[in-house]
Every structure is written in C-alpha cells, then in structure tokens.
Fold these 4 entries.
Entry 1:
Amino acid sequence: MSRKRRPAPSLSALLAERSAVDLSTPLVNGKHCRVWTHGRFSDGYGRLRWNNLQKGAHVLAFKERGGILTKTKSCVCHHCDNKPCIEPAHLFAGSIGDNNHDRDRKGRGGNLGESHWKARLTEADVRAIRADSRTHMTIADSYGVCRHTVLRVKARKSWRHV
C-alpha cells in the first residue's frame, strides 16, 4: 500500500507559518514588520526554497501580493530597512540605483573613506594629494598607491565626500 503524499503548502501558507509580526519594530505604512523566522542568506535576507530555487523571502512575499518586477525596477526594496522583513506594505519595486540612493540617503552606506576596510589613504592624505602639483606617478609612489588612485582622487571620482 502506498502512502498518500501531503499536498505542498501554498506560498502564502509558507510565508505565514515561517514569519511573525515583531511588535518591537516601528510602524511603517501603518504596520509592524513581519520578520522571517527561518533560514537566511549570509547578508541577513530571509531565504526560501521555492520551485527548486533559493529565493529571497521578501521577493516571494512581494510577488505573492501582486508586486511586479520589471527590467528597470528589478529590486525589492524595504521602506523599513529591516532585511528579514516580508511585510508587503513595507516592500516596493525599485531599480538598483533607487536602492543604492535610498541606502545612501538614509546613511546606511557606511564604507566611505577611512572606514573602508581596504582604505590606504586618510582624509588628510586626500587633501594633500589634491593640493600637490607633482606628477601623479611621483605622488602615488610617496603614498604607496597606484597612479590611477591619484588620478581618481584629483578628479574627485573617489573620496568625493572630502
């Protein structure tokens, strides 16, 4: 006698059973965050296997509620800035640029200048490089960086915040 297979739960049911409303989060669009309580990617976003693919739980929640992603609006962004949140009222479609602009506007970029883990220059070095009239190669040798770095600093393509 063969066992009957249980039907697979719907996406809505999975999203509901693997998340919980977090009342300690601030209200955004009239609702608290619904936080994903199961597996997460290393970057903190909820992870769910659906149709044999690992997907972001927030992306699946957005699509389940009728959200549409296009070529120009290919990211699911959070109004609440809470990565494990899957509350549809907190999610919106945006471009990569929209998402980056939102991050920078809210001060979540973080890795500018000296705080970046690979930074070799200080803000004082950058000011001195911009004022220096020697050749780029000579300046680069004195600071232990490549000529291209000096060129980008002087052209304000890097270290723009200084």
Entry 2:
Amino acid sequence: MSYLKESRFYIALVLFALSFILWGVFSCRPPAREVSAIGIYPPGALLQTGDVTSAHIRDGTIVNADVSSTAAIAASKVAATTSLQFVTTGTQTFAGVKTFSSIPATTGGNCVAGNDLCNKTYVDANAGTINITAFASSSIPRGGAVYIVETDSNMATTTTSSGARNATCDNNIPCRVAQSFQIITTSTISRIGYWGAVHGAPGGFVQVDIQSNGTSTPSNTVLASTTFAAADLPTAKTYLASSTRTTTTLSTATTYWIVWSSTNGTGNDYFEVGGHTNDPYKRGSSLGDTGTGWNVASSTLNANDMSFDLYTGNTSVDIANATLSQTATTTIGTAQAAITAGTSGTIGIGGVANAIPGTVAAGRLYFLSNNNGTLELSPGTISRKVGIGLSSSTILLTPQW
C-alpha cells in the first residue's frame, strides 16, 4: 500500500515538472508578428533588397509627391500613348490638334519642303518671292534681267547682212554663208531661227543646214535642215524660224556649222541673212563661199557673226536687253545671284528681288534697258516694265508679259 502511494507521488512529481517545463517554453517564445501592407515583420524590422514587390504596393496609392524630383525616369519607360511623353531627340509622331501657348522656336527655319516650319527671318526675306531654277546659256551677273530661250543663240540686234545665192554666184558675191557654234548642253535640235529677208525676186528657197565640222569649215555632211520659200519671206529683215525635217542630237564642246545656201538668185536677186559687226558670239565665227570654197573671211562678209537660234525644247535663260523683241518680250525676272554660263541658278520671277545692284529709287518704275541685263528708270528701245522700287536695294518684280 505504501508502495502504491509512493508511486503516485513520483508520477505526480514528474507531471508537475513536465508542466513547469512546458510553461517555461511557451512563456518565453517571441510575440506574434504584426501584419502590414508589405508583409509580416516584427516591429522595428529592417526591409531587405527584394522584400518589396509590385504585389506589396496597393494600386493607386503612389502620388506625384512620392516621386523624387531627381528621379530622371527614362522616356522609354513611359508609355508611348501617354500625353505626358515628349521626346527631345529622334523621331516622334503626334496625332490630333496640338495647341502651343507660345510660338515654338526653330534653329533653322529655312522652308525648303512642303511642311517645314519657317522662322521670321526667313519669311521676311522671302515672303512673296517666286523663284525658279534655270540653266544659263551665258554668264549672268547678280540682279541681271533674263529672258527665256530654248538653247544656244546669237540673237542680238543685227547690224549687217550677207547674201545666199546660187552655187555659181556672180560678181564675187557669197553664194553660201556659214556660222560655226558650240552648244552648252547636249541637246536635240528641232527648229532653227535667224534674221532674214529676200532682195529682188530670187525664187525658189533658201536652205538652212546644220553640218558637222570639217577642217575649220563646214564638212558638207548635213545633220539637220529646213527651208524658207522666197515667196514667204519679207523684204525687210525679220525674225524667221522653221522646224527641221529631222531632229539631230548635238554634243557639248563640239564645233558645228549652220549653212545658208540657195539654188536660185543672182545679182540683185538673193536671200539676206542678218549678222553682226561687233563679234557678239564667242564660241564661233562666220565664213563665206563665193563659188570656190569656204575662203571668205568674216571681214569680207561684213559680219563677224551671223544671227541664229537653235531650238531644243530644253528651256534656259540668257541675259536680256531692250533692243530686240525676242529678248524683251520674254523677259521673266532677274538673277538672284551671279550665274556662270553652263550652270543653273535662281531666277526671281515675282515678289521681292533682293539682289538688285546699285541704288534703287523706292516707288519708281524700272524698265529693261538697251544694256545687257540692266534695269533703268527709262525704257529702252522696246518698252518692257520689270518692277517697282521698294527700297534702296530691292524691287517688287511685276514683269509685263
């Protein structure tokens, strides 16, 4: 009996000791963690790299004040469709209407394409000005008046004449007349013009050929030709032009000849070809044939150069004066800068011309003069108004067509 009591005592003692140990274990454990928006951490715990993710941030809680003023967020990280994205370099397309509270500044502003932005300086200098780019047949000075031509020509006012008669012409009078020339651009010739007339009643026609070069004379190889019937020609020198029966392509830096001849005419009955005594054409000269070959010098012909036009359809410009209808009536404007022969340049055909040399009288009319390319207050032989003075250096181009 005493043994049983003693056993119960030890069992109770063991249970008590075990209860005490368990109480100590649970009473010494750390307190439960608090729950926060970013996870479960004890108070005062420090966040470590990677602890906070997008899942820990409540949508719509970050405001402008939460972003540092020095954050420098890359534009590539901003959605392209946002109204707040503006890229300062590279290409960007804006849709819809954009309203600027002030005028945008530009670094260049020289409007050269359809949708270019212009600055005030460029607009002030070019407003109302109409320019074209044209090929120059001869050198044109800055501000020089120009007219439209179709290719090479020597159509200054004729000051003398030579005759074209039959091949057995008498009295040592030229049977044929020729003029050498070189064109500036490779061109297909389709029409020939010159100043001419008839004397007496030669009958038949005058033939005008383009021939290749022989030994500093026409080769007799015809490249293109046309004819003018005596019955259709005036008795006073007049500008004449006719299409060639076939076209021919001529090359630059190559000498060719225009040859006037006839199967009719003797004595006082012959065809007249206009020419010049002052040698205006610098890329060729004239020759004559009295029936024994090309041995008549220009001095004997009384013409250093014969008049001629070669038509190609390749429009170009040349310096104009008021002495000849063909240049005065087709004057279109002025060269905005000097143009070298055989090159292209800018021609002002309307609006303000800023490249007029000399002093301009504001409010006065300016006319084409008898001096090549020059504008003056009084008209030349053929009256052709070109513009009105605006300032000491500019005129308003108002050519009369």
Entry 3:
Amino acid sequence: MILALADTSLIVDYIRGIDPGRLALTRLLTRRIVSTTVIVEAELWAGVDSPQAEEAVKKVLARFSAVHRYERSDARAAGALRRDLLRRRGDPSPREIDLLIAGAAVARGLAVLTANVRHFADLPGVRVLRP
C-alpha cells in the first residue's frame, strides 16, 4: 500500500546522493510504499542538463511502482488549497507547482514526502513527512 507521494526536492536529493533524503527514499522505494506524480516528473525533466542527468532521471523514475497521472480530483484539491492560501496570504503564484503536488497527495489520501517541509507545512489538510 502506498503511503506517501515523493516531492521533487526529495528525488533530487536521492539523485545527488544527499542524505537523509537518499536513504529514506531508497528504503521506501524498496518497500514500494512511495509514489510520485507526473507534475514531479515534469520538474525533474526540466532540470536535465546533460546525458548523465537524463539517465539519472530515467533510473529513478523506473524505481517508482506508481507515477500518478494528474486527475480532476487532484485539480479540485489543488484549487481548494490555492484558494485558501490566496485568502490567507495573497498571491500564491510562486508556489503553484507545490500546490499541484499537494493536491495530488490530498486527493489520494497520501502524505507529501519532501526535503522542503516549509513549502507544504502551512497547507491545510496536507500531511507532510520529512526524510
């Protein structure tokens, strides 16, 4: 059973060999209890700047038992999070991708596993795990 959705920051730490993210993600991938989303996949591909980086992204994505498509329920949850953030803080545009990732996690009842806890900690209903 999948328990968490990995954020881009954690996967980048894994690729770069940065602990504790690398160790945590290795354990969770081995146990097949972590997934990610195509939004994170897009962020990873955006960072590819060499053939080695391309290979690293391919390898890590192949280790995930699930890379979720973005569904209407994800969009609905992300929209609610954005609306709440807009009411409380004003323009949430610097955090749009994080809101999409959080929406995918909420819609699936998963926690967000991230190296950047502060990007998600103030979002209501989003469970956040750090490595």
Entry 4:
Amino acid sequence: MQSTRPGTTRSHSANASRRYSGLKASDLSGVNKENTEVEKRGGYNAATGQMEGAPPKRLSGDKRTSSHPDTPTADQPQDQKRSKKVYTPHQSREHGHYHVVLGESLQGTPEKHRWKILDLIGEGTFAKVVEVWDRKRKVYVAVKLVRAVEKYVRDAKFEINMLHKIREDDVQDFYPTIKYRSYFFAESNAGEHMCIVFPKLGFCLLDYLTRCATFKMHEVAHIAWQMGAALNYLHAHLRLIHTDLKPENILLEKPCEVIDKVGNRTYNLPACTRIRIIDFGGATDERHSKHSIVSTRHYRAPEVILSQGWMFGADMWSTGCILLELHTGRLLFDTHDNREHLAMMEKVLGRMPSFYPDACTGQQAQPFFDRHGRLDTAWLAGSDADALKSKAKINRLVALTNMPLDADFIDLISRLLDFNKTTRLRAHEVMYHPFVWKNYPESRRENEAREQYEQQCFKEILGGPSSRTRVVEPAYDRRGGYSSASVRP
C-alpha cells in the first residue's frame, strides 16, 4: 500500500539541524543551466533521460562518423585530448557550500585523487552529503561536506568529538548508532570544508515512507527494540541526549529490495529493518540549558515547549511520535505553532496534568494556560482564518485510545507520550514491552545477548571496575589540532 502524507509540511528552518544523510534525497535529474560550458559540450537531458552530445559508438573498421567537438576528426591532431565532461546536479549555491560536481575528485584534500564523487545524497543548511568512491580502499562511502562557515565548522568539531566517543566506547559495534570512519579537510573556492566519512547506508525512514510504504507491526517492533537499545546505551552509559530524533535521522542499514509481482506492479521492501541512528551534532550531556529549544517541531516534547526543563525523556517522546508515524505513515502533530501543538496534544492524549502551569519556568509559557490552570483554547473560537484552519486541523485528530491499532502498541505509544516526564517510559523498558516481545520474538534472545555483552564490557553494572572510566582522547583538542588516535587509515 502506497503511503501518502496529505497536507504535511515541514519547516525548513526547524530542519536546519539536519546534518547528515538523514537529509531528504535531492533531485539529481536536473542540470545546472548556468553552466554554459556544459551545455555547449552536451550533458544530461532530464526530459529524455539521455546524454546529449555524447561521442557516438564506433562502427566497423573503427571509424568515427561524428563531428562531435570532443571527437578528433581528420582536420584535428590525433593526439588531441577530449575535454572532460562535467555534470552538476541541482544544489544550493549559498555562501560556504561546497560546489558538487559529479565525476570529479574532492579538491584540496591530502590525497588528491582518492575520493571520487558519484552522487549528491542530500543537502541542508549545515552541510551536503555525497556518495563517494574511495579509490584507496575500493569501497563506497558517504562523505559529509560541512559548510565553510565558522559556526558550522565549530558544530562539526563537536559532532566529531561525540562520534569519536561513541566509536571508541562501542568497539564491537553492538549498538545501532552510526560509527564514523575518518575525517579530513578539503579546500574549495568557498573556503576550507571539514569532511566526515561514514559508511554508505540505505534510505532514511522518511524516504522509505514517502517512496515505498508504511512499516508492518513486526518491523515497527524490531525498530522499537533497536531504538530502545541505542537510547539506553546513550542515556544510561554515555549520559548523552540525542535531542534531534526523527525519521530523517534514522537510516536503514541496507538498501531496499525490489520485488516484481503479478500484474506488472513493483514493490520496494526493506532488505532488513536493521537501523542506524545518525546526526549527533546536537547531542548534549546533562549540563545543558533548561530553556534551550531542541528537537524538530513535530517531535518536540511538551516540557521543551513550556520551558519546564528537559532531560532524557525528550528523546523518549520523540521515539513515541516516530513509532506511530512509521505504522500510520502520517505525522502525529503536523503543526508549526506552539498553541496549536499543545492543543493537538490534548486532543490525542487527553488533558494535561494540573501541575503543568506551576512547572513552567519561562515567561513565554504562562499565556498558554488560563487562570484555572487549564490549557487556554479560547483562541480557537475566533473567526480569523488562522483560528478556523487550526480548529479544523485539531477536529480531524483522533484520540490515541480510539485509534484502530493493536492494544499493546497503543499502550507502548501512550506510555512514551506521557505528559509527566518522570513517569514516561525509559529506553530499557521499551525493549521489554509486551508489544515488542509479541511482534519481535527474537527480542528475548537479543536482550540476553545484550545483558551478557554489557556485563562483559561494562563491569560497573556488577559493581566492579568500569572500562568506561578510561579517558578517551578527544578527536579535536582545544589547541585546534586533531588527535592521531581518532584517525583510522
């Protein structure tokens, strides 16, 4: 069944923190019309899907029958070299972005001809992600080209530190988090770009939803178990909060399988539902500002909106929104306004707790409640266009308990979307939830394997000396240099 998202709009400003291949896949069918030299020599025609101006095939007798400008003729010297064709995908030309040219090597790198650009996977405000052929190791990788702007480079250095900590702590790659391979600098006309190398993975979950179909219950259960294991690793052991969980930042490990069935219909199915959580540029520890705004709008917890102070529960709220979206194919809270967002929460999850108004510490949160301590919805009675549109959108929502879904699945989502952040389901509890055990029976065996792995590697669980107390050398030190321990050949 093809999944659609009618009426779904996503804020590009809110998605500025998308920093990896969780970004939406770019449309590579276009050609840079400003590149007149390419047009003269011929390039890719999106309308016909053919290469225009390409050299013709050789005929019998090895004779050429074309006067193509790249083809030597009788009047031209035979040793004249062909001019190299350049194919430029449609991409952002904002200041600081690396200009991607397909078929070229990354310029200004320590190893000049090692990285060949094959495809533009995605782009955003922060960076571009390209598929690259590593000529040295003979493998396909994904390279994140950070925009040459000071604040973005600073954030990229922080992300490298987080990725290095995760990689060095999870040596056996047991948990489904992304593990970077290396990084280097590339010079271009825009400046110096930091390049982070990752393994080449499959679709992000959002791309799979929009291109293929929704996930079945057993697939959602498998993804839920993996997210619980990954977040338990981040929360309980590393004491890190991801802060930006969304379908764009969760990738399938392998590409989809195309299956042809009777009736000339093609189905795209995931080769497996093993995932990787990416984009740790916004990750933080327990020492963060209580009033800072984190998470993409649609997956933002109420305590973040109301400045009540957020911790690990913010990630669990995002997890509940994601799991429900994977099965239904629709955003649970499709909005860009705080008042509308809170009203949607009450319509789906019921009335907010009575202590909510007193728990708000920010002055901007007080106007959301009336003098009786209830969420103020008087603005929905207005006759202006915004109020009428919001009212219609809220009325279309269905309470979670009335949704035609599995009872255990509804229980899992309702406990993840608990208004009380102290009683909200924790990451390790997701792995043992009845919904996961029923729809993903292998979770029992994998829970035992995980417990044995943690007892073997992280002895602090048993009260013994901990391997996590070792000092991990940072990937980027304060003197502005990179530690050799973080670079793999």
